[in-house]
Amino acid sequence: MNPSALTAAHRTLPLGSRVKVTNQRNGKTVVVRINDRGPFVRGRMLDLSKGAASRLGFIGAGHTNICMARL
């Protein structure tokens, strides 16, 4: 997984899927490509690359509440 790319990991979505992710706290949105499996932490549905987290504005927090929609 390239940390600066707009990619993410999801347990079940097909690899190569595109997902629109919106940060519920600030309304920022990014489109990412699923290229890995995970996360394997209970309660988490998506593991974003550092580049995607930065664009969504929560890089310092480590995690946030999101909305996601498969494109």
TrEMBL record:
Pfam families: DPBB_1. Keywords: Lipoprotein. Residues 2-67 form the RlpA-like protein double-psi beta-barrel domain. Belongs to the RlpA family. PANTHER family: ENDOLYTIC PEPTIDOGLYCAN TRANSGLYCOSYLASE RLPA, ENDOLYTIC PEPTIDOGLYCAN TRANSGLYCOSYLASE RLPA-RELATED. This is Rare lipoprotein A. It comes from Phyllobacterium trifolii.
